[in-house]
Amino acid sequence: MPRTLPVEIAVQDAAGVRVALAAGAARVELCQALGLGGLTPSAGLIESAVDAAGVAAVADFVHVLVRPRGGGFVYDADELDTIVRDIRAAAAAGADGVVVGALTDAGELDLEAVHRFVDAAGELDVTVHRAVDASADPFGSVAALRDLGVRRVLTSGGAPDCRAGLETLARMAADSGPLEIMAGGGVRIDDIAALAGAGADAVHLSARGTATRGGASGPGGGVDGFDMTDAALVAAAVEAAGLVRR
């Protein structure tokens, strides 16, 4: 039977939140600096996103990425403490969920850290991000999350993108129990049907374009232009997800 596959859009600003709402996305992963893989958004951006979802009367929409820096996912004590504080701040700002993850020095999923994150999140939904794909055993990492109070995991099946990881994604979906498997990593519109066929519970993409308004960044460095959420890509993804069969 036809079913709608929920679509999550990674957005970096209030305009992106409104685009995702208008197109019928299931939720957003709210972040900044997608060029670095995404970092924790500001308090003001979280509040703006929560307000926009409230005006649109859309529940469970704002899920906040909590990642203190770029680079890998092995964090020291100060960074772990910052993540916990930012989770609590996101909850206080009205977020519906958080997106987190951490690895140990040995490259294994840091289950102790994830447990701390879940505790700090309280009633919020918890998604573990693609740190699992950077772990030594992505399949085992996903399996280890089933009993930790995590709602879903964002994964490419341990591959550079979802197309290459499709077989592993299917194994993860078959073995995940109550844990939702959200396919993300280089997702194209044409991939959505195959990801649904592999058993994914949702798909995640950034649907980015480039804006050039605002002028040059000046002689102090930086790049001209910035990422923006492409409304046409978001609409196409939501439409494709509404046509999948399983």
From TrEMBL:
Q: According to the lineage, what is the superkingdom?
A: Bacteria
One cellular-component annotation, GO: cytoplasm
Its localization reads:
Cytoplasm
Pfam families assigned: CutC
Where does this protein chiefly localize?
A: cytoplasm
Kindly list any coiled-coil regions of this protein.
Answer: none
* Keyword field: Cytoplasm
Entry annotated with the keyword Transcription: no
Citing just one GO molecular function, the answer is: copper ion binding
Thylakoid is among the record's keywords = no
HAMAP family associated with the record: CutC
Write out the similarity annotation: Belongs to the CutC family.
Q: What is this protein called?
A: PF03932 family protein CutC
